[in-house]
């Protein structure tokens, strides 16, 4: 009996005919070919990302401060005292590890989005761990970033549970090829990681509208915690967001890039972080494989195209017709 | 795009080099592909008995050497009070016992281990004996002439002549009876061959039969012609060098040469043993040349060390297969290999139980440590000390309970265990118990698979005996590093995508 006759497996041929990209192909044919090693520090270190983003005029969240040495840890309370909410991140953390969000505090108790209250001691320990390299690759010494919170855009009200929804756009040679929104859930503990139970919503490159949504790789119609219908989701200011993402190509020099964007109520789309090894779950969220779009761009002579031209090209070619997107949503009820 | 040609060339070269080295080892040094292949080793004991007459004694015994069909592995002689030396004489080797004074019955022993070996050859080419002129008296000369001329007519070379001579002696009854009084048959044949210009001599052979005692030596005829040598049984004319015939004495010398004793006799007894081929070959190639590039040329202690080291590439290959082709997650890339190496020391079940005990207990204590707000390096150091504590505790407990298996727990690499505990504990805090089980389970599964591969007798035999295979493994790893297809688990991961249309 062949393995793919088991109920939960499929044939390699089926996946390849649909243009689904596997991990090995991503690593060999895209990451190692289009992402020069020497540029990795730019994206692996959030501080450097912030620096190059500011230099090229890309909006990023405000930096409250950095903590580089163990002796600076006790200044943490003083550093954040004037800010209503903040977020502590390891500069070289990967996969959202080690990020702590504090939505409000009274200088004694610091409240996380889940409502759990932490003391300043808890936060200081967290910063010490970051400095010691607990969350960085290879355990090397790290820097803690203290960032201002994002002002949650109202259009996403009810789409996310305890966390900021972010938009992941895969940018290949400067073209936004595929996008998805990641909505945190109770199951994902307020984190936007799909494998922990966040909902992934495939977003149409042409319109910024939801195509379909998945949780744990299975299609869902409604947000499991808030019950909002996910097919109604529409990312505001979509053109700006795509242009911002596409301009990260020139900024970082990385050919195959994952850009994580958030919508700020006041400042519009902002770059949260860049990822030189973006995951493959975006294909499940979109119900489409990446390979046909990547190959289309590889075949294109795009070296002279501007950001606007690239975004226009992507919106024209990678849009999914509305009729194909609606049936599942319509039958949902 | 960079051309992949050089890459595939390198892979192909590595693969071919590995294959060639292995084939070389197999065909030139006879290392078998499969483990547990046995070779027959004959232990033959020659016992020399005589009555000493109270004078200085010198007993010289012909002894065999490596020859076609047999390789001499080792030899020893036992004879209390006697001086012993091995001498070369007339191209053959002899054991010579000497003593200043002895009287009464004496017993001297010589024991040799000969391996049945189809590839064996004499270390020195066999010297061709000289053709001695013979003058025979009548009536023997006429008889000899009659037999010889008939045989010469019907033969083409020395070997067919020998066969015909033996046949003629069988058919010319009268001549045969006459000549039997003149010379013993083997010597007669040698003289007749010499008359015809063919070099020949009488040698002594021993028929090997398992468990035989007092086996006699038999006379065989060694005939030289045109650069070739054949051994012929003088009684039948059949080729004498059959599978179980060992030539004990090959230079026409007396088997025993005794001074200072009387009533001497030599008896032979033998047993057959089966020896693993590795042991036998080790003895055979003990002093071989540089080209025999193998671990066997190292001292025993280093050999044991290398046995372990050479298995690591196999474990690594298993990890690469599991990660690239299957897509299993492991905690720490090569941690499973190290755990698998510990399993080899401890045996699988003990190892698994020990590993789970240490890690689960470590996780419990580590969860308490995480409240102490320690710096990372200090905390990991604390975990290391804790792991050592747990291991000591379990060892003592196991010993007190009489479970000596439990003592093997000390074979676990402690630093690796500590890192495993630290990583698992963080994973637990950040991503929950499910991820810990998935990654921990993945690591253990890969470790068990690596263990099964590394502990496989065939694989151990191959890696240890065929160094060239390391290059082949290298080629395989390089090829796997180039694999862009789907991973097995991706067929399940993306299955929802394939379903809908």
TrEMBL record, chain A:
InterPro entries: ATP-grasp, RimK-rel_E_lig, RimK-rel_E_lig_ATP-grasp
Ranges of residues in domain ATP-grasp: 50-301
GO CC, one annotated term: cytoplasm
A GO molecular function held by the record: ribosomal S6-glutamic acid ligase activity
Example GO BP: SOS response
Key words, A-Z: ATP-binding, Ligase, Manganese, Nucleotide-binding
Pfam assignment, any one: ATPgrasp_ST
Entry annotated with the keyword Cell inner membrane: no
PANTHER family: BETA-CITRYLGLUTAMATE SYNTHASE B-RELATED (PTHR21621:SF0), RIBOSOMAL PROTEIN S6 MODIFICATION PROTEIN (PTHR21621)
Official protein name in the record: Alpha-L-glutamate ligase-like protein
Native source species: Marinobacterium nitratireducens
Organism phylogeny: Bacteria, Pseudomonadati, Pseudomonadota, Gammaproteobacteria, Oceanospirillales
TrEMBL record, chain B:
7 transmembrane helices usually fused to an inactive transglutaminase domain sequence ranges: 254-497
Sorted UniProt keywords: Membrane, Transmembrane, Transmembrane helix
Transmembrane segment boundaries: 304-326, 338-365, 377-399, 406-424, 436-454, 466-486
Residues of the Inactive transglutaminase fused to 7 transmembrane helices domain: 24-181
One Pfam family named in its UniProt record: 7TM_transglut
InterPro entries according to UniProt: 7TM_transglut, Transglut_i_TM
Name of the protein described by the UniProt record: Gonadoliberin III
Species of origin: Marinobacterium nitratireducens
């Amino acid at each position: 009996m062949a393995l793919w006759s088991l109920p939960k497996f499929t044939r390699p041929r089926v996946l390849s005919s649909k243009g689904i990209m596997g991990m090995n192909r991503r690593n060999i044919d895209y990451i190692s070919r289009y992402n020069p090693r020497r540029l990795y520090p730019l994206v692996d270190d959030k501080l450097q990302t912030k620096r190059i983003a500011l230099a090229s005029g890309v909006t990023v969240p405000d930096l409250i401060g950095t903590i580089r040495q163990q002796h600076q840890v006790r200044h943490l309370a003083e550093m954040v005292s004037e800010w209503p909410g903040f977020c502590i991140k390891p500069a070289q953390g990967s996969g959202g590890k080690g990020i702590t969000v504090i939505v409000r505090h009274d200088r004694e108790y610091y409240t996380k989005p889940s409502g759990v209250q932490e003391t300043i001691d808890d936060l200081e320990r967290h910063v010490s761990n970051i400095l010691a390299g607990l969350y960085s690759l290879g355990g090397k010494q790290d820097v803690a970033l203290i960032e201002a919170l994002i002002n949650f855009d109202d259009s996403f009200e009810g789409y996310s549970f305890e966390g900021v929804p972010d938009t992941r756009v895969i940018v290949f040679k400067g073209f936004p090829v595929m996008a998805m929104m990641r909505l945190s859930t109770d199951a994902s503990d307020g984190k936007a990681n799909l494998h922990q139970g966040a909902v992934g919503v495939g977003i149409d490159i042409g319109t910024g509208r939801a195509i379909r949504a998945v949780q744990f790789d299975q299609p869902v119609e409604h947000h499991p915690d808030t019950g909002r219908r996910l097919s109604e989701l529409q990312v505001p200011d979509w053109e700006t967001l795509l242009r911002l993402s596409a301009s990260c190509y020139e900024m970082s020099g990385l050919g195959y890039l994952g850009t994580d964007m958030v919508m700020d109520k006041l400042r519009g789309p902002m770059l949260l972080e860049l990822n030189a090894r973006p995951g493959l779950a975006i294909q499940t969220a979109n119900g489409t494989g990446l390979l046909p779009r990547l190959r289309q761009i590889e075949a294109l002579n795009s070296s002279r195209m501007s950001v606007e031209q690239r975004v226009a090209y992507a919106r024209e070619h990678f849009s999914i017709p509305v009729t194909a997107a609606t049936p599942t949503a319509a039958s949902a009820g | 795009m960079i051309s992949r040609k050089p890459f595939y060339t390198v892979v192909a070269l590595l693969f071919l080099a590995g294959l060639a080295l292995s084939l070389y080892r197999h065909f030139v040094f006879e290392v078998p592909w499969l483990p547990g292949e046995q070779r027959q080793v004959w232990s033959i004991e020659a016992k020399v008995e005589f009555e000493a007459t109270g004078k200085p004694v010198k007993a010289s015994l012909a002894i065999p050497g490596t020859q076609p069909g047999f390789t001499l592995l080792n030899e020893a002689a036992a004879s209390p009070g006697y001086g012993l030396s091995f001498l070369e004489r007339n191209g053959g080797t002899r054991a010579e016992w000497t003593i200043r004074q002895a009287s009464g019955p004496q017993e001297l022993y010589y024991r040799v281990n000969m391996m049945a070996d189809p590839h064996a050859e004499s270390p020195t080419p066999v010297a061709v004996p000289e053709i001695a002129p013979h003058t025979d008296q009548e009536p023997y000369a006429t008889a000899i002439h009659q037999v010889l001329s008939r045989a010469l007519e019907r033969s083409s070379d020395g070997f067919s002549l020998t066969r015909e001579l033996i046949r003629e002696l069988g058919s010319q009854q009268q001549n045969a009876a006459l000549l039997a009084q003149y010379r013993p048959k083997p010597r007669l044949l040698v003289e007749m061959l010499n008359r015809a210009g063919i070099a020949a001599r009488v040698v002594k052979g021993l028929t090997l039969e398992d468990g035989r005692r007092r086996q006699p030596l038999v006379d065989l005829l060694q005939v030289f012609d045109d650069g070739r040598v054949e051994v012929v049984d003088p009684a039948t004319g059949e080729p004498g060098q059959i599978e179980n015939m060992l030539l004990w004495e090959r230079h026409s010398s007396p088997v025993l040469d005794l001074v200072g004793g009387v009533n001497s006799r030599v008896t032979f007894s033998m047993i057959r043993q089966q020896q693993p081929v590795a042991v036998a070959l080790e003895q055979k190639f003990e002093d071989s040349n540089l080209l025999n590039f193998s671990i066997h040329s190292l001292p025993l202690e280093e050999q044991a060390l290398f046995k372990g080291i050479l298995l690591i590439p196999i474990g690594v290959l298993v990890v690469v297969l599991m990660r690239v082709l299957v897509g299993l997650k492991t905690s720490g890339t090569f941690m499973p290999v190290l755990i698998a190496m510990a399993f080899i020391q401890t045996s699988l079940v003990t190892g698994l139980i020990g590993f789970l005990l240490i890690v689960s207990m470590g996780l419990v204590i580590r969860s308490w440590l995480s409240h102490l707000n320690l710096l990372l390096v200090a905390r990991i150091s604390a975990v290391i000390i804790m792991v050592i504590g747990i291991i000591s505790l379990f060892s003592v407990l196991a010993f007190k309970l009489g479970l000596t298996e439990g003592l093997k727990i000390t074979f676990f690499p402690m630093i690796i265990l500590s890192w495993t505990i630290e990583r698992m504990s963080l994973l637990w805090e950040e991503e929950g118990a499910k991820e810990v089980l998935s990654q921990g389970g993945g690591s253990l599964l890969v470790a068990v698979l690596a263990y099964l591969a590394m502990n496989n007798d065939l694989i151990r035999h191959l890696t240890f005996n065929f160094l060239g295979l390391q290059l082949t493994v290298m080629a395989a790893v390089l090829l796997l590093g180039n694999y862009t297809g789907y991973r097995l688990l991706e067929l399940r991961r993306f299955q929802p995508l394939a379903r809908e249309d």
